[in-house]
Specification:
By secondary structure, this protein is an all-beta fold. It is built from no helices and ten strands.
């Protein structure tokens, strides 16, 4: 699984560009899964996505930055698997990104632990889209045992 790439000046006519992200690091060798993008304080595009290695057993939050107009990307492990909120919930899954004041926030899909897993969304914060801190779980009532794509 990789991220394709197209570009448009008018959202009606599209041009294929080279693939944006391949699974080519230790953090995403099982696939470049869903994520989102923002422009950081320095005007640099930052993609934050789920780097899948072993399904929900081993995942990473990968931050990729482009310094050449979205053509090539430099990746880093910005949310290590060791930071996961609990043993059954990935550290990063289906990233949503927004900024409030001087702080960035991510909403990540996941589940609760221990006991019977319930879907939840985890909020992470960052001052710079490079380091992240787990803030809170926003709901622990479902849907189901895992919350996919927690876009609000």
């Amino acid at each position: 699984i990789a991220w394709g790439h197209t570009a448009s000046n008018d959202l009606a006519h599209w041009e294929d560009w080279p693939v944006a992200m391949w699974p080519d690091t230790p953090w995403d060798k099982g696939g470049v899964y869903s994520g989102n993008m923002a422009i950081d304080a320095d005007g640099i595009p930052v993609a934050i996505y789920t780097g899948n290695v072993e399904g929900h057993k081993l995942t990473y939050g990968v931050c990729a930055r482009s310094h050449d107009g979205f053509l090539t990307w430099n990746k880093s492990d910005c949310m290590d698997n060791k930071l996961r909120p609990n043993p059954t919930s990935p550290v990063n899954w289906d990233t949503s990104i927004w900024k409030d004041g001087n702080k960035w926030f991510l909403l990540i899909g996941g589940n609760t632990y221990p006991g019977a897993a319930k879907g939840t969304g985890y909020v992470w914060s960052s001052p710079d889209l490079k380091t992240f801190k787990l803030e809170t779980s926003i709901w622990s009532g479902g849907p189901g045992s895992f919350w996919e794509l927690p876009y609000l």
